[in-house]
Amino acid sequence: MKLPVIKHLTSFIEENDEDFVVETIETLEALTEIPSLKDEELDIIGELISNMYGALEVDKMIKEGTPKKEALNSFMKRVLGSIDT
Description:
By secondary structure, this protein is mainly α. It is built from 4 helices and no strands.
């Protein structure tokens, strides 16, 4: 996951609507079913999907009252903590 991408997507959600991101995730997930995709292509799609899910999670925290910067930092700490474990 990349914090700058999640931050940008979070801003996109704030300016538009989370439905755009949800629908994009669904589209990308459907693309992963193409049998001829190479592993590298699947990895890229997977990275995009995980960043979008991350942005949705950060947006949820913001809507619950967490300041944006704190929500981003908290989310990334959680992600890094789960990687270290």
